[in-house]
Batch of 2 targets.
Target 1
Amino acid sequence: MPRIITVGAAQSGPIARTESRRDVVARRIEQLRQAHRQGCDLVVFTEVALTAFFPHWWIEDEAELDAWFEHQLPGPDTQSLFDEARRLGVSFYLGYAELAYEHGQKHRYNSSVLIDSQGQIAGKYRKLHLPGHVEHRPHNPFQNLEQRYFEIGNLPLSTTNVCGAQVGMCICNDRRWPETYRVLTLAGAELIVLGYNTPDQIPEHPAMNHLVDFHNRLSMQAGAYQNGVWVVGVAKAGVEEGVSQIGQSMIIAPSGEVVAMSSTREDELIVYRCDLDMVTYYRSLFNFAKNRRPEFYESLTNRPS
Ligand code: CDV
């Protein structure tokens, strides 16, 4: 009997700076219902899925900055999403800006949670690879202030069992790092889910602008194939507060093949029935237990350059 998990990649179109949390949550609930009608077990939302991507602009006032973060999850504006997921029996991945108090200190992270079919938080992750810069770059067409507004995550890359699948989470820029997929795979991932906000131009490296779409596909397809794992990448797409972001939300099989891809830069749901037995089949090709050479990777890393 094949092990199938039906996954919905719920791409978000742009979110206006003035759009209320409640209105955005209503959009996410609509996608959840659509996914349920199409038989989804798990819905993957994007990175910072509840607001516009505020690291694209300079914010000096602390209270103003804090207002972009979730102080509680679920909280008064997001409870309805969790309630609806529980009612429908659908699990989901949600990226959000997290404001946390740890040891009495305020911390800000770019985070994601995995919610089980009972509407409970089953797993949590905080982004490790933060792109961008700390200082204001007013001459750039837009800012990328993730290194200013977020701390590096302090939770391990790990996996959680939801819907009968071992699921690993990461967030946006993490997808460009081979270590992310390999560590999650070694932690047992059969499916890796992630959201992203990716502008279609790179202010510091304009010579790469024409390759932005290609590098998005390349990273995720290579990660899937080299680790024999399903990958679901979900965009915040379209022109948001003057920043044009790529779409190309996609579901990638352990073969590295794209099996479903969005065709708009709006709210859009793509669905695929992922056969988890493909993971076993592709892993048998590599046979990590027999053929990986971790002792040599270590000695090569330590070699003087
Ligand atoms: N949110 C992101 O992490 N975005 C980066 C961009 C800035 C390069 C990305 O890797 O897509």
Target 2
Amino acid sequence: MCGIVGYVGWRGAQEVLVNGLRRLEYRGYDSAGVAVVDGKGGLEVHRAAGPLDNLVAVLPEDGAVGSVSGSSAALRATTGMGHTRWATHGPPTDRNAHPHRDATGKVAVVHNGIIENFAALRAELEAEGVELASDTDTEVAAHLVARAFSADPDGGLTAAVRATVARLEGAFTLVFTHADRPDEIVAARRSSPLVVGVGQGEMFVASDVAAFIDHTRDAVELGQDQVVTLTADGAVVTDFHGETARTRPFHVDWDIAAAEKGGHDFFMLKEIEEQPASLADTLRGHLVDGRVVLDEQRLSDQELRDIDKVFVVACGTAYHAGLLAKYAIEHWCRIPVEVEVASEFRYRDPVLDRSTLVVAISQSGETADTLEAVRHAREQKARVLAICNTNGAQIPRESDAVLYTHAGPEVGVAATKTFTAQVIACYLVGLALAQTFGTKYADEVAREYAELESSADAVARVLEAVVEPTRALARDLAPSKAVLFLGRHVGFPVALEGALKLKELAYMHAEGFAAGELKHGPIALIEQDLPVVVVMPSPKGRAILHQKLLSNIREIQARGARTIVVAEEGDETVRPFAEHLIEVPAVSTLLQPLVASIPLQVFAAEVARARGYDVDKPRNLAKSVTVE
Ligand code: F6R
């Protein structure tokens, strides 16, 4: 939620910031703004409601790329910051767009998160006669910094920021500039992410390395409650009290090409096609000397052996991956697994202790609901294992063990390659636990691991075979009002995920059901020509389930539904009941969700495209949800 970028260096700041915001738009696209500062022109702010292009349209025009000449500060300045917003406090209008300024116009701030005590601070400022120019929680921070700076000009902007963050409650990552300090920017981090990019004579700060990957792959991760002062020559990091703080430098292991569309119309379509690689990359290197190893493990084998119950917590698509974790872990480890949406978990006081393992799944590693579930679990002494796609994000940092998915950056707001990578990572966790508990011998673990490795090829075959026919089907069904999705066993989470993708991208009413539940109510929804997508189990390993699902298809067909069936290649029994048959390769039961979800991802993207929607940026959504 909300993307932040800051720059100090020698390039034209405006251009660096706008390019950075383009890569951060996935974090929010309700409005955007930049503030630049230079020694002569002072502070200049430009903001616009709507997508980034609206901002670009109101920016002073630059003659040459990277030039630092021109009449306005915006064109000369080599220091500044930008913001792309996902609105929380106040509607997405020009006046609520960031950066916000103090009353003198000397301080500007951008913010990601929520300042929970903003109402009290606002009242305090208003009582002092300050007129607030926006409805946001953010603006108070600009006024407070301006006040602290005037009270202690010798302390500089950094001291003023420290004094201000000491008064704030909630989650806030803030970046400030001051017209009297044109050569520096100061940022503070609590909860929402912030990374520093280290260049040659230039420094960056951003919510995500994608914002500065064009310029440098050397980065420093900021910890909780840290303040960083950036000048062109470097960064000074302290804690909120001014003590030197420890940071973790890292090198970004992907390059600019990974953050580009690579010839596709949408990032999502590129990301769908990247799944064979992201599955292989996620598995790679995790079987060492016959043992499955995680990326980080701060738990002893004995602590893991003491686990007698597993909770999986996650949101949205990651929750669907978690549902699949249950099948694998219970099957391989014979211990009970409960899967719960993270936003519900801590509010119902779950029974947790040292022998409980909480597996938190999050692509971003910063989803507030999941993070709070992790914190609650740790307070209750449960062990936490994170599955995450973002190196060093808050959820893995606060966990006892971590397995990273190596899906690379996912820019499309709808999760695709990170979903399948999460599923495979869940299976790896299942194997790691099975070997620790002794419920699987080393040769069995190695066999299962090899089976998982075959998923990349199977998914590649699906992509080759189904993308084009699924596109045609999507165009045909795009005018439908609603679509239902049915599945059983591991096909049930696939049905839920197929429905979620269609809802969020095509704004269409879509529901996923366990097919056996149909007769307990949802069958009343079936009417003439309603498209129903059915995820069939294999007729071989799961013959009984297959039979039952065939009966379900007959029931809905008899009531006039249009049946779209995802079935194993060679499953002839289903052909007479499928108006559209989507054939996927025969794979083991646990891999079936991987091959079956690919056509549903393509379907949702193509229906959305046929309806004229922006596939990468569905309305009202943002990629990282850092508010509860
Ligand atoms: C749907 C989608 C969301 C996320 C959810 C959790 O396509 O992307 O449902 O899965 O917001 O996000 P992470 O995995 O970052 O915790």
